[in-house]
Amino acid sequence: MTKHVVLVEDETNIAEAIRFLLGREGWRVETLANGSSAVDVIRTVCPDLVMLDVMLPGKSGFEILKELRADPAFADLPILMLTARGQARDREMAKDAGVSRFMTKPFSNAEMLEAVHSLTAATPTAS
Amino acid sequence: MAGHKQADLAAIVGISASYLNLIEHNRRRIGGKLLLNIASALGVEPTTLTEGAEAALIAALREAADDTGLSGPEVGRADEFAGRFPGWADVLANAQRRIATLERTIEALTDRLAHDPHLAASMHELLTTAAAIRSTASILADTKTLEPEWRDRFHINIDQDSRRLADSAQSLVGYLEADPETTPAASSPQEEVEAFLAAHRFQFTVLEQAGQDETAIQDLVNSAPELKSVAARHIARTVLQQVAVDADALPIERIRDVIETVGRDPMALAQHVHQPVGRVLRRMAAMPELGAGLLVCDRSGTVIFRKSIEGFMVPRFGAGCPLWPLFAVLGNPGLVVKERVEQLGRGNAEFECIAACEVQSVHSYNAQPLVQSVMLILPAQGLATGPRLEVGATCRVCPRGNCPARREPSILNDGV
Fold first, then answer.
1. Quick one: which of A37, A55, B329, B370 has the most CB atoms within 10 Å?
2. Of the candidates B326, B340, B322, the residue with the CA atom closest to the CA atom of residue B394
3. Distance between A83 CA and the closest CA of chain B, angstroms
4. How many A×B Cβ pairs under 8 Å?
5. How far apart are CA A119 and CA A114, in angstroms?
6. How far is residue B14's CA from residue B4's CA, in Å, rounded to a whole number?
7. pLDDT (tens digit, 0 to 9) for every residue of chain A, 127 residues total?
8. A13 vs B123, B132, B142: nearest CB
9. Would you say A125 and A97 are in contact if contact means Cβ atoms under 8 Å apart?
10. Is B136 in contact with A13 (Cβ distance < 8 A)?
């Protein structure tokens, strides 16, 4: 069965690379470049995984994360945050808001794929 | 040891040149008859030879003890340690000074990283572009059979991103290389004004002449290359208008004369010249011989004027320490606060701070007056006899523990 990921990333070229890498593995990738419609799209699509940038136009990744976790239907949804904001404070904020995994840019493709595999192979746990 | 060759002086006082060399470099303590002989040969007071370097060494050792929490009887034996192990004492003192220098660098960089919107945006841009390039380049390198359509697209993406990365990096380097102390990369109208005032060394001789009108101010503003924005020119005009009013009411020469008779206490000066304390503080800040700093904030607590003084750090971005007397008088027009202040985290420099709050608006019924606070920062003279107020620059770089005014953790204590 095809797995479905919603990728919320405003950097076109990063989104394109991720779309290629996951698409090659059989993932269906829904890409959003704006945070404002992300929660609605995720509610409609009910993906297996959400990949979320932090600094987004419209609505920040933290806001999207909090809204999703406030909804019991998405309490266990694997959410991988990809951000250039790697400060300890940002990690803490993401963890408190219920992120499943936090990765700092620039990451390697192997790291990103490993995170995707581990998050979708088992029950996600916050790291 | 000006005027004497080392070997001659050693011969006069009856010691070897190498031993004298050790003394000169604070590697041997000097005292007793030898001290008197050398002082006599040089024609100076004995204390001149011992106080400066040795006091600095012992102060650095005590500072190191303070910073590392050394307690007990050993703390009081810094001079004995310096005497018995002068080489090790120098090593420790130098390490302490080096730490202080590095802490200052960290403060400045952290302040910029945390609060400088330009720097934060530039770093984000760099990291994001690097992420795109890294990911795309890996795909190109690792994928043996890549469809031509994808391959071409990724080549175009890498080309775009590498150009973007080069531009961002160049822009960032240019920004970082601009030394804020000498060539401020003015990114706000307030910074343009500060650059303008610094270029004039905060002195405007033309405005000290009685009866200066708006034309002189306009000429100063129009001829200032630092004032690029309309907002900066507006702020500069306001500052200069205040200078002109102050100069008219209390010329620099007048206050200079009065200081000679009543000393440099602002309250005594204000009473003597029958002028508001705030005006006296501003005038004193314009006297280069006092080496004073000045901060002015409006009713919101925003610092709207700053004249820097070495050792008293005012954050370039974000809010300062709420314990500064500047803020203590805010909302209390007429109140004047004088405090011996020690700013922690920057070599623990001490200052005499005098702050006053002034009403800016015209009085009217049932209207809260607009006020502003003025704080003069003078280098501390002599040893403190009374209590000292321990303040910081801003919470993020302040090491003070259990501070009732702390807004956020310190990177120096908590690493966050």
1. B329
2. B322
3. 8
4. 60
5. 8
6. 15
7. 789 999 999 999 999 999 999 999 999 999 999 999 999 999 999 999 999 999 888 899 999 999 999 999 999 999 999 988 666 778 888 899 999 999 988 889 999 999 999 999 854 433 3
8. B132
9. no
10. yes
